[in-house]
Amino acid sequence: MKQLQDSLPPYLKTENGDLWLTEDDRENLKISYRIKDVIFSQQSAFQHVMILDSYDFGRMLVLDGVVQTTSIDGHIYNEMISHIPLQLHPSAKKVLIIGGGDCGAAKEAAKYSHIEQIDMVEIDEMVVQSCKEHLPAVSGNLSDPRVRFIYTDGVAFVKERENVYDIIIIDSSDPVGPAEALFSYDFYASVRRALKDDGLMVCQSQSPIFHLDILKQTHANIRQLFPHVAVYTATVPTYPGGLWSFTIGSSIPLSLPETASLPNDTKYVNEAVLKQCFQLPEFMRKELE
Predict the structure, then answer these.
(1) What's the total number of domains in the chain?
(2) pLDDT (tens digit, 9 = 90+) per residue, 128-166?
(3) Quick one: DSSP state of residue 41?
(4) Is the distance from CB of 172 to CB of 85 less than 8 angstroms?
(5) What is the DSSP letter of 280?
(6) What pLDDT score does 240 carry?
(7) Which of 50, 70, 90 is the last residue of a domain?
(8) In what order do the strands lie in the sheet with 12-15?
(9) Which of 102, 119, 124, 171 is catalytic?
(10) 51 and 82 in one domain?
(11) Same domain assignment for residues 45 and 110
């Protein structure tokens, strides 16, 4: 047993013969997943990358011991961060995705035939390659020729662009390590410059339950840069608290089309979800005022 334990990645432990991943990044909360198998495990130049096969959530991407997406509910997050802005800007041609190494957001954006180019800027190539090979339920083994994989720092990349993109999707992990800079005011200011005059951006803005301070700061930063701001939510079981937030900033008024033009293979987003996701719980509405 000790020999098996010594050979495991540092984030995995054995208990009574079972393998467990335990997230303990919060001081008062631990979340554990019973694991069937370690599919991929390697240290990149930036972080520890794992693809695990779990009993309840199927295959999952784990970065530095924290679950990022899973086969069973990854589509919820990826559909919500992609289709909402694409419905609000139905004539978008150039899309930038910063982060999103699991390829899920790019896969969803590529379902729109009017989009001509999707630049996916991910700092860690190992995340992309491992998800394309070992996590097809999320990545779809993405190979659309309109998607350009750019392996570099998203903060530096966007700082060098001006008036280029119709939509920018900031699909970051939690604001620690490589992703910390993706929550700063200066970064959002660069995003604003990289957008066209009628462009819009969206970012994941964390749990309103456990990370309300991050949501409020994100909302305040974006509100200083864009005349039109909106927050919407979705329920993603994998993420702490379940309830997850997204924040949109736009240079033009935000208005959903009378009739949605969604792809016919979505699993979570439909016309009703599009309309209700902007209806916030009362505690969120008051805090964001």
Answers:
(1) 2
(2) 999 999 999 999 988 899 999 999 999 999 999 999 999
(3) E
(4) no
(5) -
(6) 85
(7) 70
(8) 12-15, 18-26, 29-43, 48-54, 58-63, 66-70
(9) 171
(10) no
(11) no
